[in-house]
């Protein structure tokens, strides 16, 4: 089969795609280590440290709400960082977001407790969490744009998946750090032990800066800036030419609810008096699921390079709705073998299909000049809803916090919009990088024929 001539644009220097993917993986792992240690602390520690212990149910609800606060801040961060990312380049945003995350996380570890300063403590906690949310808003979109625009033809799915496997690596690292912390005696845990994982973010910032400052800007962005200039108001162009794709990304990003329910609500539920499973064992469930996800994500992404983004994403979205029922049911039984098995199946295998393919799937919907803005704004609005899914789940679970079937139904309902988004989207795995997203203003772009 022949390959029709298409504009090729500037080629990435040899080895640069691999370097970009490595920087995205390591940077995302370090960035999301910071973000996810907060989730573990919100479920296990913060109700007793920052909120009123006399009402444990309300304290847990408020603590989980602070987890969602960062997701509420993310759309605002996406507007700002997306704008500058499409004007100044991907590299500068990647460095900035990592430094901001490291600083805000370190500050959380230094905060006074409720017993020391009263209600000022949760206020300061929320402020630091907002800074984390702003940082996370630009992280995945900038790293995703960087890897997609460096990737060789026919392998965009594989290379962009490094951003999400890095995110899973960060979640795994956060879980492994919290396992020995959670095993500390109660007095030590609540006094100083919980602070240690947050203080380690100083190293996160330093390592991330060294890695990312040496990365080259993408050829696609450099060429567009040289030939056409950058867009003065990316948001205006985005809403004029890509509004339908932004809506698809928002709907698709709701699939992240599976992650937040699994990571935070299920952890709080399993270790509550209603079930009584140990904190250490449940942290190991998350760790094992993330190990499996590290292998599954690039495999699903590689499959999407062959058969398309849409079918792989649909497997993950529809399959997560089913397997989440199995996982929460297993937790409700208190059976450790069942919980481990279904946790790995749900989060490690099935959810990884959608999680691994969305960086390419969403990024390919937009042109280079608004790609970072489109992915950042679309995902962060959807992720904001996913972040507060934990708070809603805590309310849906009832006064005793043990109505797991209602939470499973709620999670399944949140998987419906991603399915609809995927069914309505175009297949883009064979469209040349240089003409991605041009359908919006110039008509439908036909996929390139690729020699197999």
Automatic annotation (TrEMBL):
Q: Which InterPro entries match?
A: MFS_dom, MFS_sugar_transport-like, MFS_trans_sf
* Protein name according to UniProt: MFS family permease
Cross-referenced PROSITE patterns: MFS
Primary location class: membrane
Task: Give one GO molecular function term.
Answer: transmembrane transporter activity
The alphabetized UniProt keywords are:
Cell membrane, Membrane, Transmembrane, Transmembrane helix, Transport
Report membrane topology.
Multi-pass membrane protein
Which Pfam family, any one, appears in the UniProt record? Sugar_tr
Transmembrane residue ranges = 32-51, 57-81, 93-114, 192-211, 249-269, 281-300, 312-330, 336-362, 374-398, 404-423
Q: Where is the Major facilitator superfamily (MFS) profile domain?
A: 20-430
Under the cellular component aspect of Gene Ontology, which terms does the record hold? plasma membrane
Gene3D superfamilies xrefs:
MFS general substrate transporter like domains
Q: Where in the cell is it found?
A: Cell membrane
